[in-house]
Write a structure and sequence with these properties.
alpha/beta, Phosphoenolpyruvate protein kinase, TIM Barrel, kinase activity, PtsI_HPr-bd_sf, binds phosphoenolpyruvate, binds magnesium ion
């Protein structure tokens, strides 16, 4: 029998996984998700929604039938299509044109004198969201649980849609250890290697991903390899620990978790201070989701309710750059390379929907909102104004809401150097992933980039910025926070609040007790 072939790769997420290969690049293996662009897509989504409603009507009682018939009538109403079409003609994205048209209709109904009319508002809200659901398109095809994903690269949405509880891993021909899928894999403790170079394997061939050593092992001739090992939480994660954590010299330290997917909130145990970063962009698969206030509200509500009393920081959509949003490709804002808060300000219709969902979500827990990729202080002021205007609109509709504290990521060097000028930010959180990239003039997806060489510059910048924070709450949520190697430097820079991927929490907790708050090693360590 042929010897197994061991290919050297770079570890992107530790652990070992074995399973049958799933080749992502077979022709037709990964159908492109349906995009939400163009008026034709809206017409199709309306047709799909009418079909769904007709099916629902079949088994419905007479009262429900009346409601469904009314909804179908509205969907077929040419004046709705015309109003949406007119908005598209003045260059509005079709998804937001649909939302604006229906919101205007809902607004009229909500303020009608007759109670019967007011009661219809919710029926229109329902069809607005049904059509948005249809516009969001079919999800990307999943692959069998327990298999090893083999391909050139992997989309974050595909990672998030997959059930990793049955084990499995990822081997990418190219990819990056700093890319977003690598970050998701580390958070969920899914073994992953990148940079294997192209190799040939067939679907179902046994493959082993060695995320510890950085290798992929191919068993030639379909020879059996040991059964797949379901990914396990690192030992210690299940032990009951106290929230109280101190350095060796007694300075209190907070550890929060970063979540990328609402389901990860389940790993918030009693020893965790809260959620220091929820990357909301990973819950939004397309522009249709970005336009769907109710869907976003449901996601944030779930996270906040699960967190209970603990604080939760939800970051607004960090889209653009290396985080595309399906359906947004054609918009002028993207051509200029905008990302994060600047993109949201350039496309305020996206920010306004999210602002409303966040304002309403405050009813369900201790929510703070964080703005991504902030560069200049006026960006915070402009976003705050959007929140204020949307809060006023919610107030007019008697919808429960509250203004959350609004803080910012510190991940653009210009912002870090000028932190004392961000008077209206309620708190700061260092994003070392982007800070490293922009300090070293390297690309985040550059496999060869040596983050270690840039670390001293990043640490020096953080230490300066912490002094400029003027006593406001400061934390760190970039990947550096979850690497014990950088802990002394981060402590010395003055950081006391670390937000890390759930899988990194035990390692950081145990490392902290070995250091003093100034970053020196504790006596006897
Ligand atoms: C960062 O840049 O460090 C960060 C936390 O944001 P993201 O990784 O989502 O870009
Ligand atoms: Mg970032």
């Amino acid at each position: 029998m042929a010897e197994p072939l061991r290919l050297k790769a770079k570890s992107a997420s530790p652990g070992i996984a074995s399973g049958p290969a799933f080749l992502a690049e077979r022709p037709g293996a990964a159908p492109a998700p349906q995009t939400a662009g163009g008026y034709g897509a809206l017409e199709m989504a309306i047709d799909i929604s009418i079909g769904e409603l007709e099916r629902l009507a079949e088994g419905a009682d007479p009262e429900s039938r009346d409601i469904i018939d009314f909804q179908i009538e509205v969907l077929r109403d040419p004046s709705i299509a015309e109003a949406t079409g007119a908005r598209v003609e003045v260059d509005e994205n079709v998804v937001f044109a649909w939302v604006a048209t229906l919101d205007a209709y809902i607004g009229e109904l909500e303020t009608a004198d007759e109670e019967q009319m007011r009661a219809r508002a919710v029926d229109i809200l329902d069809i607005k969201n049904r059509v948005l659901g249809a516009l969001a398109g079919t999800p990307i095809a999943d692959f069998p649980p327990g298999s090893v994903f083999v391909g050139k690269d992997m989309e974050p949405s595909r990672f998030l849609a997959h059930d990793w509880s049955k084990g499995g891993g990822i081997a990418l021909f190219s990819g990056s250890t700093a890319g977003h899928v690598a970050l998701l894999a580390r958070a969920k403790a899914v073994p992953m290697v990148v940079g294997t170079g192209r190799f040939s394997a067939e679907d179902g061939d046994p493959v082993r991903v060695d995320g510890d050593a950085g290798a992929v092992v191919l068993q030639a001739g379909r020879m059996l390899i040991p059964p797949l090992v379901p990914t396990q939480a690192p030992a210690g994660d299940t032990q009951i620990e106290s929230v109280e954590l101190r350095t060796a010299d007694g300075v209190p330290i907070l550890i929060s978790i970063n979540i990328n997917d609402p389901a990860e909130i389940d790993s918030l145990d009693p020893a965790t201070a809260g959620v220091g970063l929820m990357r909301s962009e990973f819950s939004i698969a397309s522009i249709a989701d970005a336009a769907n206030e109710e869907r976003q509200l449901a996601i944030y509500r779930r996270v906040l309710e699960q967190a209970g009393e603990k604080p939760v920081i939800i970051r607004m959509l960090d889209i653009g750059g290396d985080k595309p949003l399906v359906g947004l490709e054609d918009l002028p804002a993207l051509d200029s390379g905008l990302r994060g808060t600047r993109l949201l300000l350039a496309r305020p219709e996206i920010a306004r929907v999210q602002a409303r969902a966040l304002l309403r979500a405050t009813a369900f827990g201790g929510l703070s909102v964080m703005l991504p990729m902030v560069t200049f202080p006026d960006e915070i002021d402009r976003m705050r104004e959007i929140f204020r205007e949307e809060a006023e609109k919610l107030g007019r509709r008697s919808l429960l809401h509250r203004m959350p504290p609004i803080g910012m990521m510190v991940e653009v060097p210009a912002a870090a150097l000028m932190l004392d000028t961000f008077g209206s930010a309620a708190f700061f959180s260092f994003g070392t992933n982007d800070l490293t990239q922009y300090l070293a003039a390297t690309a985040r997806d550059d496999l060869e980039a040596d983050a270690g060489k840039t670390a001293p510059a990043v640490l020096r910048l953080i230490a300066q910025a912490v002094k400029l924070a003027a006593g406001k709450p400061v934390s760190i949520c970039g990947d550096m926070a979850g690497d014990p190697h950088y802990l002394p430097g981060l402590l010395a820079a003055g950081l006391r609040h670390f937000s890390v991927a759930p899988a990194r929490r035990p390692a950081i907790r145990s490392a902290i007790t070995g250091f003093n708050a100034d970053g020196t090693r504790a006596a006897g360590e």
